[in-house]
Fold:
Amino acid sequence: MNAANPSSVVATAEQLIDGWELVVGLEVHVELATRTKLFSASANRFGDEPNTHIDPVTLGLPGALPVLNRHAVELAMRLGLALNCRVQPCTFHRKNYFYPDLPKAYQVSQYDQPLNVDGFLMLPGDVRIGIERAHLEEDTGKSTHFGGAEGRIAGSEYSLIDFNRAGVPLVEIVSRPDIRTSEQAKQYVSELRAILLAVGASDAKMEEGSMRCDVNVSVHKPGTAFGTRCEIKNVNSIRAVGRAIDYEARRQIDVIISGGAIKQQTLHWDDAAGRTNVLRTKEDADDYRYFLEPDLVPLAPDTAWVERVRAALPPLPAARRAALATLTGQARESEAIAVVVERGQDSYVSEVAKVGGDAARALVYVQQAFADEPATPRVPAGDIAALTLMEKNAKITSTQAKTLLADLVANGGGDVIAMAKAKGFESMDTGALESLVDAAIAADPDAWAKFKAGEQKAIGALVGAVMKSSKGKADGKAVTALLQAKANT
Amino acid sequence: MPEPISRNTVAKVARLARLDLTEAEVDRMTDQLAGMLEHFRDVDALDLSNVQPLNQPIPLTNVLRDDVEQPSLDRDEVLGNAPAAQDGRFRVPPIIGFEE
Amino acid sequence: MTRRTVVDIATQVAAGSLSASTVLEENLAAIAAREHEIHAFNLVTADKARERAAQIDADVKAGKKVGRLAGVTIALKDNLCTRGVETTCSSKILAGWKPPYDATVVRRLADEGAVVVGKTNLDEFAMGSSTENSAFGPTRNPLDTSRVPGGSSGGSAAAVAAGFSAASFGSDTGGSIRQPAALCGLVGVKPTYGMVSRQGLVAFGSSLDQIGPFTTTVADAALLMEVIAGHDPLDSTSLPQPAPQLVNVLARGVKGLRIGRVADMPEGSSPDVLARLDAAFDALRAAGATVVDVKLPSMSFGLTAYYLVAPAEASSNLARFDGVRYGLRVDAKDLNAMYGATRAAGFGDEVKRRIMLGTYALSAGYYDAYYGKALKVRRLIADDFAKAYEQCDAILTPTSPTVAFKFGDKTSNPLTMYLCDVFTIPTNLAGHAAMSVPFGTGDAGLPVGVQVLAPALGEATMFQVAAELERSS
Ligand SMILES: [Mg+2]
Ligand SMILES: [Zn+2]
Structure:
């Protein structure tokens, strides 16, 4: 490790970009799922009429004083513990700057003594990303710009301010510079999001801004000191995180290669144009005049409180994915496992298995058909279990299973055997199927001979004949398997 | 102790505090602040190396409230106090020289 | 005119032997006669007060239970938020602002039947010691209109001294209740930090500010403290305990109490003031107290610490006056220009000076040398007091180095004005209890105040001593 580098993580050869090592750290802001704001009792609710969740504290009215929301602290602790942080006694500071959506002209945040410190988050492949801190702070209001192009600030004639979001509790999660690829960065955000959802700390909707990413990017030659970093503000989707990093890494490498130097800058990611733009350089960075907020007192969660929160933590996504993988025999990093765990429907899958269903099929059903269902779907687990068995035992075809699954979801459950019967989906049992296959072979000895001689195409005629004689009730796969078996004996 | 306060520093601090000062005010303020800061040097006589700062006179911890919603202020009453409002929001002049 | 005390009014109005409206009309008559020369008020709320007094009288007639302050007329410093009633802090930047809520203190007073006669003048945002820094013109001392009433709560002091109300309320960040009380011959209380809710008090120095009463008697102050003190869940720095019992300690006397005399007291007090302080020690000794010498070596550094801590907090507290949500706006081509022009036009010189000083003291590169150092000095002062209180139960000092001074005497050099608060500031830094009690007169026949200091939560002892001084003055 180079002494100048605040991380011991070294990129593998495949991770280098034309011989350059990429270093990424993320600062992610998430809005906590409280009923009220961090320091006052007006509602924390998104999407309502502007300025309908305002009180003297939210508006920074003269004489208004903040009082800390216990539930916000508890959610922040829950998140910190889920990220393997140490929860410690902490304080609040004022960060002073003028902006019209910042009502008091200071943001109450945590500075040198944050609530959660020194954690980590695991990515696929046992990649460990350090978490420096996860601190509490208040959100700002929202400015909308008018009179310029596309609501942009540049060239606008005036702006309108809505303070509904002002004072909403945020946790800012600051990673260590341990990320080496844009893919890891995306995995990090995605895993963080999964954890937030699992512990119920936030709804983590990036499209609504309840989860927002600032990305720090630098590049350097392996074995040398870290390069100068640029911060890309407000990257608003996981895909954009990857694109912004790829773009910015390339830009920085090109600047250095062509003899230039990277200036420490704050950048804006323009997703439509696919490029970063300069917001400001370090020279005009504000002087925030941090000082301890005299209107608040220190927060010192005692061991009993911390342990109570820890004990109440639900199983976390990584452990749940591992359990679901074991149960279903699927790969831990498969799409289906990730999706089902993110939706919180993994316990439903194990419920289906528990009542005798086939776990692997249940996983596929849930992934495919339950996107709009809650974590506890309305369809009784027993119904899904029955369906998995019918398909597994070749009582119905996979196409028929799909149809029945859609009906189950639409109706919130049902007797799958009766439903199959009503649709005429009763497939043949194996004995009946075998006699139809034998009949088809007898009726077309030419095709059978060709197939036995290795001409694979010839099987089509035989399968088609069985499907026809079964009036579509035979499972094509089962027929093929049967013909193959006969040919091999 | 840092250098005596300069006219440039005073002008910079005035920008930080969003106070438009006239040239004459900057001059006067430089003199007055310099005088006060000079006077404040009397504390240089104290050995403060092992002294913990005192931010709040009475030590309290863990003052918390329950997450219970109270009604919002009336928007019209609040906007009635605003210098400029439009469409249920506070209106401000164009924001330039800031980040987006 | 004979002065009615708070206790008299409350007792008689509740008993039905005096009407609240009568009391109010006496005050309004006094206001009509002298307010034009005193200028105690930014706003007299006569109509609302008449309605309120009539309601109380009706309640008494109907046999309804009335509060502990039924019919007591009060004036409120114009930095206390009053719902729907203009609250200006004597600043152009807040002119016309009507808060949508009441300060906790204002609500508690109303709940006990007090009648608000108006909002009183102050040094803009409570920054000053003479009320000469008001954007709406100075307040005059009713005892001698060529002199200042003190400040920053000068309007509240003058209102009681002139008989405009039975009592009033101010805020004290570095002496802003005690010094005008001394200069106007009144009792003025700066409670222990956290004893009285700051919710709805427009902040100056958040870690220093406390609200307290002005009265003509110690008993009145005790009753008002019992009403306004006690935990408030809307203020995180509010102490988690009920209001202290003060009315019932006043007759206890001072026998056996140890009263501290500061051996190394900062110099600069005038001889007439020092003579009254000596007389106060004599009186307490005669009443059975013992006088002990204590040392407060860091006391003289209080001014330095205060004039960094208070402006630093103020620079942040006053940043919200930005022309966006309330108060003055000076229109300009863009937002930054609007901010700069609004704040330049809205704040007076003293406020600007302190915003500048505070911004500087907090800014990168200067924090440790100024603000950080001031907080350490603050610790030394608190430690000094803690040591002193091992030897004594209360400490006496002058409240103000001089009696009321003439207009313009101390306006040329800010530091001269700051020296007015040399005795009052240290207790704000330490967060302790303090009050000023009138104790005879000095030069020009003007009143002299003696300051009684007590440790945090030492209000009961402090009031015992104050009551004894009142009896012997
Ligand atoms: Mg940040
Ligand atoms: Zn942040």
